[in-house]
């Protein structure tokens, strides 16, 4: 039936959905954490209905699991899902980087140079949030400069999961610095309007992220077995 949910609840459900997903993607709620409908409703100043609606939407997107017996838990992304997302990015973003090198304007390059210049050359653990924001804005700028709205749309639909992966993979200061150097290499190729170099540099960036995840999984498994 249409119109059975009050408009105020629809608005509140949207707010609850965005806030809960923000907490998940920023790892404030970690995989395995149990979520309390009552507590979240109280924190947001809402009734339970908008939070319940938000939970249903988050469940459909794979962010949480709801069990009538045990409750609601943060699901996160499986290793297979992370691999599939990174492999998709490797194909699509390397292609977009090549297109962007041909099509990027001087004004767009000026904005990217300014962002990198303001950030500096070194990444430290206390600047993780600033780096992740720079990384996100850089990739979005590449999508825009490439001028292919269809491919950009596919990647933008994955953006929340990409943000979750970035934050979940950001435990190594060395990897963070390497990732920063990698996107700077993409910028240098864009400045030269070198399509092949831009595509290759973006591919290296995402392949390295994939390899880091794989190596971390092996390392974590060995550490668990040695206990």
Structure, explained:
It is a single chain. The protein folds into two domains: 68 residues, Winged helix-like DNA-binding domain superfamily/Winged helix DNA-binding domain (Arc Repressor Mutant, subunit A, Orthogonal Bundle), CATH 1.10.10; 147 residues, Four Helix Bundle (Hemerythrin (Met), subunit A). Helix 2 crosses helix 3, helix 4 crosses helix 6 and helix 4 runs antiparallel to helix 10. The protein contains ten helices and three strands. It is globular and about 60 Å long. The chain is mostly helical and 227 residues long. A three-stranded antiparallel sheet has the order 1-3-2. Helix content is 74%, strand content 4%. Pfam families: FCD, GntR. GO terms for molecular function: DNA binding; DNA-binding transcription factor activity.
Blueprint (SSEs and pairs):
Blueprint: H1 7-25, E1 34-35, H2 37-44, H3 48-60, E2 64-67, E3 71-74, H4 79-103, H5 106-119, H6 128-146, H7 149-157, H8 159-168, H9 173-191, H10 195-225
Antiparallel strand pairs: 1-3, 2-3
Helix pairs in contact: 1-3, 2-3, 4-6, 4-9, 4-10, 5-6, 5-9, 6-7, 9-10
Overall CATH class of the largest domain: Mainly Alpha
Helix content: over 70%
Task: Count helical runs.
Answer: 10
Number of strands: 3
Structural class from helices and strands?
Answer: mainly alpha
Global mean pLDDT: 89
Radius of gyration from CA coordinates: 20 Å
Output the CATH topology of the largest domain: Four Helix Bundle (Hemerythrin (Met), subunit A)
CATH superfamily of the largest domain: GntR ligand-binding domain-like
How is the biggest beta sheet arranged?
3 strands, antiparallel
Q: What string gives the helices and strands in order?
A: HEHHEEHHHHHHH
Q: How much strand? A: under 5%
Query: Strands of the biggest beta sheet: in what spatial order?
Result: 1-3-2
Q: Detail the poorly predicted runs.
A: 1-8
Question: Can you tell me the number of structural domains?
Answer: 2
> In the CATH classification, which architecture of the largest domain applies?
Up-down Bundle
N/C terminus separation:
56 Å
The gross shape turns out to be globular
Organism: Candidatus Afipia apatlaquensis
GO molecular function, one term: DNA binding
Protein name: GntR family transcriptional regulator
Keywords: DNA-binding, Transcription, Transcription regulation
